[in-house]
């Protein structure tokens, strides 16, 4: 029994640590997922606090995972794990049964799970944590209380430092389609073996006081103005395999609104795109950008600002090439605001935070 309890503790602890580490690698990604839930629930006032909640959540997951493995204050930790898993199960259950959230973000973008997989995982953890609560008196700490406190604090501090680093310099492991080495045109292409969902349009009309329904392939032979339209709906006929292009919303536009995505990504030679979601922190990177841009111009390498705040950027950087892009797309492409992309055609040769611009060597 003792061995079985130890195995369960290690399994639960490692899963919480892994989950926390994956999300700590990209805390902004988790904060955006929180915003998605809050938007669905209408809790818009909480959007400004999602990054803080993300940072705290990741620290708590990893700290609790370490604590359950070493048996530190088992009773308190097991109750805390139960609260966490009940909360997570509610979120994954909501994502699964409401259909309003496609992924819960349990393992970040590095290991995307379907709502069904996430819900099943949380149900399993719920059962295991309830078991640990039931056998709590049999759990003996592997280290002294003082040493356990020290180990938990060490991992909490290390998690905090990791999150500070990735918020400043970009995630250590980039799991997004805009990562170094990816070809953006290829990422925007639908896989050859993709099968889309197939839908049928069903119309509802009223004829001679009776309601009739038919799809777009079977209009009544006598269909005319005597049919009174009620509404229409889409009904799923065949479920696809869920394969889609990894990038579906990337678009670069000129200041006049012309789509220049293809032209930009097919230009020859190397060039630099600076993805800046907005100009809110421009004073922290403007001087370095202007110096870098001048050095690139001397080497005939173009530097273009891609932003959702084009009008403000035009005021701040007159004469600098500008392109407009959706803010949500930029948040995905560039976790640090702003981020430099060294491009060669559609290939991302390098990707660095503005905080380490000196490492970018075109």
Structure in words:
This protein is α/β, with parallel strands linked by helices and 362 residues long. The chain has 3 domains: 2-169, no CATH class; 198-238, no CATH class; 261-359, 3-Layer(aba) Sandwich (Glutaredoxin), CATH 3.40.30. It is 46% helix and 15% strand. The chain is built from 11 helices and 8 strands. The protein has helices at residues 2-24, 27-41, 50-70, 74-98, 115-134, 145-169, 184-187, 261-265, 286-298, 310-316, 327-333, and strands at 198-207, 210-215, 228-238, 270-276, 303-307, 322-324, 339-344, 347-353. The chain has a 5-stranded mixed beta sheet, with helices on both faces. It has a 3-stranded antiparallel beta sheet with strand order 2-1-3, with no helix packed on it. β1 (198-207) and β2 form a beta hairpin. α1 (2-24) packs antiparallel against α3 (50-70) and α3 (50-70) packs across α4. It is flat, with a radius of gyration of 26 Å. The model has no long low-confidence stretch (mean pLDDT 92).
